[in-house]
Amino acid sequence: MRKTSKLVVLAGAVLSLSLFAGCSSNEPDPAQRAVNAANQADQAAARADAAAQKSSAAAAQAQAAASRVEQAASDAKAAADRAEAIASKTMTEHHPMRHRRHRAAAEAAPAEAAPAPDSGAPVPAPATP
């Protein structure tokens, strides 16, 4: 009987120590740690998927903006080409004789419209080309 009581006491002590060690450690068992790690991995995958979707949307917006900029540049080049063509056409259609007629008319006008010297009105200056 003495041996059995020692064994019972020893078993009780081991049981008490194992319960005490299990309760005081506050660490989850390996199965709980694996579940926690799986949950964290799932959350990280969800965040990565959301970031990939946002990145894809941003890339699509950037591509659309680049297309608009390219179209605006093309329109500006076409407008510049039209302006250059108009300016070139204007330069080639310049008629120098027309200006000579205006100059001759301007020179003749003051002589015809000159006031009489005794009127007292100031004499206009002749037009300069």
Termini Cα gap: 142 Å
Give the rounded overall mean pLDDT: 76
Largest sheet: none
Structural class: mainly alpha
Percentage of residues in DSSP E strands: under 5%
Low-confidence stretches: none
Strand tally, please?
Answer: 0
Radius of gyration: 51 Å
Apparent shape: rod-shaped
Strand-and-helix sequence, N→C? Answer: HHH
Number of helical elements: 3
Instruction: Determine the fraction of residues in helical runs and give it as a percent range.
Output: over 70%
Question: Would you write up a description of this structure?
Answer:
The protein has 129 residues and is mainly α. The chain is built from 3 helices and no strands. The chain has helices spanning 2-24, 30-92, 96-112. It is rod-shaped, with a radius of gyration of 51 Å. The mean pLDDT is 76.
Keywords:
129 residues, mainly alpha, 3 helices, rod-shaped
Helix/strand layout:
Blueprint: H1 2-24, H2 30-92, H3 96-112
Quick recap of the structure?
Helix content is 80%, strand content 0%.
